[in-house]
Design goal:
8 helices; six-stranded mixed β-sheet; alpha/beta; globular; 16% strand; 248 residues
Length: 248
């Protein structure tokens, strides 16, 4: 079967006498939807350029002050089985350091994303008990004078790490999913009255919008996801003060 939306648009482009065909589509909203669907299809197949392909890098430039982006993955029993932390320059939001913890014995129980627990090669993983991992994270953050933790859909991570609730928490999604804070959200996107996207505001969707790299796929590995969520903060380009509205 042919693509009806492509056939219709091709008919318009060719400038033929399409008055009878167009007249059959009485509801203009259907025409608009055909155009939108075709535009989305073209965009999704656009090849990224060298400037848009996302890369995870760690800067060697020292940072005067830092924030941290944190991400967790849970096992089938909703227990934290891995934690990733990306330390970033508080001004440029470039990643300056990262740590990755696989929690034992929780990871042994298996989870939806157990298959990607060990895919990271550039950042050594530390297999540790939850107590040891949390102690190490707190010691590391405190040694860097880092008091602010950012996460995407932060309530989930905050609710799973009571050991870190003494830090200041901010939800990246609170800005990234709202058109008044994320200029990459298309004008045609369906949003609630609050400005939040009605759908398609996960990490993968938002990072594709911001970067233009529509080949990007979320890995669901805690440390790689933490670095990707930090990239969202970097690409949005807001000063830290703006995130006050995203404080938990």
């Amino acid at each position: 079967m042919g693509n009806k939306s492509l056939d219709f648009l091709e008919m318009i482009k060719n400038g033929a006498d399409n008055s009878h065909s167009i007249a059959r589509i009485k509801d203009t909203s259907k025409v608009q939807q055909l155009v939108k669907n075709n535009a989305a299809a073209e965009k999704s197949t656009t090849k990224p350029t060298a400037n848009t392909i996302l890369k995870r890098t760690i800067s060697k430039k020292p940072a005067a002050s830092t924030i941290a982006v944190i991400d967790t993955e849970t096992n089938w029993y909703d227990e934290v089985m891995s934690i990733g932390v990306a330390l970033a320059d508080a001004e440029t939001f470039k990643c300056v350091e990262a740590r990755y913890y696989i929690i034992d014995p929780e990871y042994r129980k298996g989870g939806m994303y157990s298959n990607v627990l060990n895919i990271v090669k550039s950042i050594p993983s530390v297999v540790a008990s939850r107590d040891d991992a949390m102690s190490d994270i707190r010691g590391w953050l405190d040694s860097k004078n880092t008091s602010s933790l950012f996460a995407y859909n932060a309530k989930f991570d905050y609710g799973h790490m009571e050991e870190l609730t003494s830090y200041e928490w901010f939800d990246i999604m609170r800005l990234a999913a709202y058109k008044q804070y994320n200029s990459a959200i298309p004008e045609t996107a369906e949003c609630c009255k609050t400005g939040r996207l009605k759908r398609g505001y996960g990490v993968q969707d938002i990072l594709r919008m911001l970067s233009g790299d529509y080949t990007y796929c979320e890995t669901h590995n805690a440390v790689l996801d933490a670095m990707d969520e930090l990239k969202i903060v970097e690409l949005m380009g807001h000063d830290l003060e703006v995130y006050e509205i995203a404080r938990l």
